[in-house]
C-alpha cells in the first residue's frame, strides 16, 4: 500500500514539475526567463520563496522547483482521490474529488486562520511564509508527509476491513 501511495505521489509531483518546467522553457523561446523590471520579480526577490535561484540567475532550476512545490499539492490531492476511490464506487465523484477537496480545505483553513492563510499561500513558491526559504519548503514537505500518513492509514483500515470482515 505504501508503494502505491508513494508512486501516485511521486508521479504527480514529477509530472507537475516537468510540466511547469517545459512550459517555462517553451515560453523562453520567445521571452526572457524573467522580467527583471517587473513588480512581480521585485516582490519575489524581496519576499518570495526560492529567491536564491533567481538572485543567482538559475532560472531553469527556479521553474523546476516551483513545479515541485506545486506538485506537492497536486500529489496530496491525488493521494486523497486514490483513498476515496476505495470507499466510493462512483468514478465521476472520485475524479472530481481533488478539486472539491482543495476548495473544502482552502475554506476550512481560511476559517480557522481568520482569512490569513490559504492553500495557495502555503503551497505557492511566490510566497514565503516565514521569510525563510527552507522553512517554507519544510512546511510543504511536512504537510505532504502528514497527508500521506493519514491517507495510508485510512486505506489500510479499509482494506483490513474488507479482508478480515
Keywords:
78% helix; mainly alpha; 165 residues; elongated; 7 helices
Description:
By secondary structure, the protein is mainly alpha-helical. The protein has helices at 2-28, 39-47, 51-55, 59-87, 91-112, 119-123, 133-164. Helix 1 (2-28) runs antiparallel to helix 4 and helix 4 packs parallel to helix 7. The radius of gyration is 18 Å and the shape is elongated.
Q: In percent, how much strand structure appears in the residues?
A: under 5%
* Distance N to C terminus: 19 Å
Radius of gyration: 18 Å
Shape: elongated
| Overall pLDDT confidence | 87
Poorly predicted residue ranges: none
Give the beta-strand count: 0
Give helix and strand order, one letter per element, not per position.
HHHHHHH
Q: Bin the helical content.
A: over 70%
Query: What structural class do helix, strand and pairing data support?
Result: mainly alpha
How many separate helices? 7
Largest sheet: none
Question: How would the blueprint of this fold be written?
Answer:
Elements: H1 2-28, H2 39-47, H3 51-55, H4 59-87, H5 91-112, H6 119-123, H7 133-164
Helix pairs in contact: 1-4, 4-5, 4-7
Amino acid at each position: 500500500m505504501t508503494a502505491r501511495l508513494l508512486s501516485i505521489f511521486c508521479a504527480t509531483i514529477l509530472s507537475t514539475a516537468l510540466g511547469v518546467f517545459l512550459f517555462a522553457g517553451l515560453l523562453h523561446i520567445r521571452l526572457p526567463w524573467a522580467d527583471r523590471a517587473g513588480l512581480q520579480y521585485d516582490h519575489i526577490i524581496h519576499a518570495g520563496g526560492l529567491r536564491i535561484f533567481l538572485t543567482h540567475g538559475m532560472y531553469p532550476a527556479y521553474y523546476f522547483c516551483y513545479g515541485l512545490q506545486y506538485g506537492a499539492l497536486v500529489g496530496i490531492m491525488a493521494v486523497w482521490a486514490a483513498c476515496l476511490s476505495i470507499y466510493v464506487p462512483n468514478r465521476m465523484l472520485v475524479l472530481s474529488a481533488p478539486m472539491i477537496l482543495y476548495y473544502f480545505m482552502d475554506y476550512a483553513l481560511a476559517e480557522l486562520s481568520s482569512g490569513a492563510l490559504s492553500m495557495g499561500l502555503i503551497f505557492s513558491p511566490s510566497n514565503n511564509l516565514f521569510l525563510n526559504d527552507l522553512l517554507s519548503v519544510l512546511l510543504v514537505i511536512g504537510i505532504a508527509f502528514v497527508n500521506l500518513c493519514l491517507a495510508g492509514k485510512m486505506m489500510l483500515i479499509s482494506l483490513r476491513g474488507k479482508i478480515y470482515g
